[in-house]
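agent> Task received from the user: take the single chain below, predict its 3D structure, and emit structure tokens. No templates, no multimer pairing.
agent> Plan: (1) validate residues, (2) run structure prediction, (3) serialize to tokens, (4) report one or two observations.
agent> Step 1 OK, no nonstandard residues flagged.
tool_call: predict_structure(input=
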Amino acid sequence: MRTELIHGVLLFTGDFDERDATTARRTYPGRQVLVDADLEVHPAGPGLPRSLLDR
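)
tool_result: status=success, residues=55
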């Protein structure tokens, strides 16, 4: 597993599921969490975050 900070977004690479997203939401309150195969923790902001993979 690897962790990176890209444009203010924490990116955890690995195989994650919704249980991991729930843990990330408790660990990083107020942040927006996306989970695909990887887990992304975005800063709080208006609207839904866009995945780093879509950029």
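agent> Step 4: summary for the user.
The CA atoms of residues 19 and 31 lie 16 Å apart.
agent> Done.
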